């Protein structure tokens, strides 16, 4: 329950967004895990997406990309 005093959350006071704070916490937890759980958690961290270039109002063949992890 939020306080009525108007106090900002500490992550906001530190100049972070909640997503940034959440990502930092998730990385800390993943790095604290022991093997093989650590490797499994890091492998789930990867993000896959596809990009389609549009030409004359029609999409070209999409390219599948992965967000590289920085470890």
Describe this structure as you would to a colleague.
This protein is an alpha+beta fold and 71 residues long. It has one domain: Atp Synthase Epsilon Chain, Chain: I, CATH 1.10.1620. 38% of the residues lie in helices and 20% in strands. It has three helices and four strands; from the N terminus they run αααββββ. The strands form two sheets. A two-stranded antiparallel ribbon has the order 1-4. A two-stranded antiparallel sheet has the order 2-3. It is flat.
Can you lay out the helices and strands and say which pair or pack?
Layout (H helix, E strand, L loop, with lengths): L9 H4 L4 H15 L4 H8 L2 E5 L2 E2 L2 E2 L3 E5 L4
Antiparallel strand pairs: 1-4, 2-3
CATH architecture: Orthogonal Bundle
State the helical fraction.
Answer: 25-40%
State the total count of DSSP E strands.
4
* Tally of helical segments: 3
What is the CATH class name? Mainly Alpha
Order of helices and strands: HHHEEEE
CATH topology: Atp Synthase Epsilon Chain, Chain: I
Low-confidence stretches: none
Mean pLDDT across the residues is: 81
User: What is the strand arrangement across the widest sheet?
Assistant: 1-4
Major sheet size, sense and barrel closure? 2 strands, antiparallel
| Approximate shape | flat
Q: Evaluate the radius of gyration.
A: 19 Å
The percentage of residues in β strands lies in: 15-25%
What class do helices, strands and sheet pairing give? alpha+beta
- Return the domain count: 1
CA distance, first residue to last residue? 37 Å
The oligomeric status of these chains comes to single chain
